[in-house]
Amino acid sequence: MFKMTTNILRNLAGRKSTRLYPRDVRETFDRVRGELLNDIQRCLFCGTCAVKCPSQCIAVERKAAMWTYDPFACVYCGVCVETCPAKSLHQKTLYRKPTTERVVVRMQGELKKRVKGASPEKDAPAASDA
Description:
The chain is an alpha+beta fold. The protein has four helices and five strands, in the order H-E-H-E-E-H-E-E-H. The protein has a domain at about 30-110: Alpha-Beta Plaits (2-Layer Sandwich), CATH 3.30.70. Helix content is about 20%, strand content about 15%. The longest helix has 9 residues, at about 5-15. About 10% of the residues are buried.
């Protein structure tokens, strides 16, 4: 009992080793992988991100042009961002804020029709002067 007295007094009088997270936020580290974002206009709905995701938090429905993401299952590894052929996925440098309810992100896009042998610049509609 008396061996622990010095340790108990040091813990009571010393500085706290934890912080009150939602109120006291620490600065993020360099190159942190934070919250996942999708630029749905650039998305091809190819499903590469869903296949490569180790936690299986992404689902892609190609025919419906629906992209679904569960941020509570995501481990923020960045594999989906690296493998996206359209470069539509990005990660913020901040973590997701705490929340009291489970939210699943669903994004509706539209499929892009691709013509064989055509470059992306030729597929864009030309601006008319009319």
